[in-house]
Amino acid sequence: NGGGSLRVRVTATGEETALAGIMRLVAEAQQSKSRTQILADRAAAWLFYIALGVAAITAVAWLIAVGFDVDVVARVATVLVIACPHALGLAVPLVVAITTSLAARNGILVRDRLALEKAREIDTVIFDKTGTLTEGSFGVVGVETADGWSEQRALALAAAVEGDSEHTIARGIRHAAEERDLALSRVTNFEALKGRGVRATYNGDEVYLGGPRLMEMLDLEPPRALNAFAEQAASKGQTLVYLITSDSPASNGTGEVVAAIALADVIRPESREAVRRLHDMGVEVAMLTGDSEDVARAVAQELGIDLFFAEVLPEHKDEKVRQLQQQGKSVAMVGDGVNDAPALAAADVGMAMGNGTDVAMHAAGITLMRGDPLLVAAALDISDRTVAKIRQNLFWAFFYNAAGIPLAALGYLSPVVAGAAMAMSSVSVMSNALLLKRWKALQ
Ligand code: ADP
Ligand code: MG
Question: Which label site among 49, 78, 297, 385 has the fewest CB atoms less than 10 Å from its CB?
C-alpha cells in the first residue's frame, strides 16, 4: 500500500470464519448417517452373527464327521476370516467421503448426507428468480412521472425512502440517485413491507414505494398516464415499482402514484444452459418470485422454464413447494435469500445459492458455493453417482462374503487364500470408489 495507510476490520477469526464453517459442514456431512449407511451397518451386523453361526455349525459338523483334527480348526478360522464384513463397513463411508469432498472441490457443499442421497430422486427443481436465475443487482433503466413531478424529484424521494432497505431494488435506486448527484431528503419512520416494498414519512407525508403487491395492499391503480411506460417495461421483463405519496396535487390527503421506476436485472449467462441440462435429465423446472406476473413470464420464456409462480409473498414461498409435493413430485428448491429459508427447508432437497444469506445456508441440505445455476444439475448428477457407486460396492462386498462362507465351511479354502480374498474385496471396493475421482462438475 505504498505510503498510504491500510485499515482492516476483522469480522471473524478462527472458528467463526467462513472457511472454518465450510470445513465444519463437510465434516458434518461425512459423519451424518444416511439411509444406506444404516442399511450397510445392519447388514454387517447380521453378517457377523451369520459368520459366528456358520463357524459353529462348521465346527460341530466336521467334529461329528471326522472327529477332532487340525483341519477343522483351520476351516473354522477360514469361515471367520472370510465372513469378517470389513469391506461392507467400508463400502458406504468411503464413497461418501470421496463424493462429498469431490463435490466441495467443485463448489457443491453437502451439509446433510440424506440430501446427497435424495437429490437423485428429484423430478422438479424450483428456482427463486431474483439472485438465483438473475444476478440480483438491479439498475434503474427508466423513470416516468405523473403531472407536477420531475424525474429528479421522484428519484430523490425514492432513494431517500429506500435509504435503510437492504433489498437489491433499493440498492439500484440509491445507486441511480447517486449517479445523478441528487440531494436526498431526510425521511423518518422507515419500515420494510416484506415482499411488497417500503414505507417512510417525509415532511409529514406517508411515502410508499413498491411493486404490485403494495398496490394491492393500498388498493391503488397506477394512473393512466403511466400505463404506456408500464406496458413497455413489462414487455422487456423489467421490474416496475411505484412511488406513492400524498404530497401530490392530485391527491386529497390520500396517497397517489406519482412515479413509476423501471429496473432491469441481468439474467445470469449460465441460467439458460442450467435449465436445458435439467430438462435433459428429465427434470421439470419451475420458478418462484415476488416480482410481477409480467416480469416472471418474460424471464420464464427467455429461459424455457415450464412453470412459474409470480407475486408470491415471502411467507407463501414454502406453500408452493408443498403444493408441488402434494402432486407427488420430489422437489428441490434453489434460493439465496432469507425469505427463501422456509421453502428451502420444506423442499425434499434445499440448495442455497452462492453468496446467499447464512439463514438460507442453514435451511438447505446443500450449498452451492458459486452463484452458478449449472451447479444444480451437477449436484443431482453427483448424487446419482454416489448412490450408484454405493450400491455397486455393497453388492461386491456382500458377494465376496456370501460366496466365500460356504466354500470355507466345506473346506475348499485355506485361511491364507481367505485372507487374500478379503483383502481383495477391500481393494476392489476402494478402487471402485476411487474411480469417482474423475468426476467434474461441469463438463
Ligand atoms: P424476490 O422473490 O424476487 O426476491 P421479494 O419478495 O424480495 O422478491 O420482493 C417482491 C417484490 O416486492 C419486488 O419485486 C418489488 O416489487 C417489491 N419490493 C420488495 N422490497 C422492495 C423495496 N425495498 N423497494 C421496492 N420494492 C420492493
Ligand atoms: Mg431472492
Answer: 49
- 374-409 vs 70-83: helix axis angle to the nearest 10? 170
Q: What is the pLDDT of residues 352-386, one digit of tens each?
A: 987 666 667 777 889 998 889 999 999 999 999 99
Number of the ligand 1 atom closest to the C-alpha atom of 211: 16
For 404, phi then psi, to 5°, come to: -75, -40
**CB of 112 shorter than 6 A to ligand 1:** no
Contacts of 401 (CB under 8 A, 6+ apart): 47, 82, 83, 85, 87, 88, 425
Taking the centre of ligand 2 as the mean of its atom positions, its distance from the CA of residue 35, in whole angstroms, is 32
Reading the block at residue 157, the C-alpha cell is 424521494
Residue at grid coordinates 388498493 = 219
Are the C-beta atoms of 179 and 172 separated by less than 8 Å? no
Q: Is 128 a catalytic residue?
A: yes
| Phi, then psi, of 199 in degrees rounded to 5 | -140, 155
Report the nearest-CA residue for atom 24 of ligand 1.
Answer: 197
Q: Tell me the CA distances in angstroms from 403 to 407, 416, 425, one per residue in order.
A: 7, 16, 12
Question: Which atom belonging to ligand 1 lies closest to the Cα atom of 162?
Answer: 23
Can you list the alpha helix ranges (DSSP code H) found in 113-211?
Answer: 113-118, 151-161, 168-179
Report the chain's C-alpha Rg in angstroms. Answer: 31
Give the closest ligand to the alpha carbon of residue 289: 1
In the reported structure, the alpha carbon of residue 273 is separated from the centroid of ligand 2 by a whole-number distance in angstroms of: 20
Contact 222, 214 (CB under 8 A): no
Using a cut of 0.85, tell me whether the model's pTM lies above it: no
Ligand 1: which of 135, 167, 191, 309 to mutate, most ligand atoms within 8 Å of CB? Answer: 167
The answer to whether residues 258 and 146 touch, using CB atoms and an 8 Å cutoff, is yes
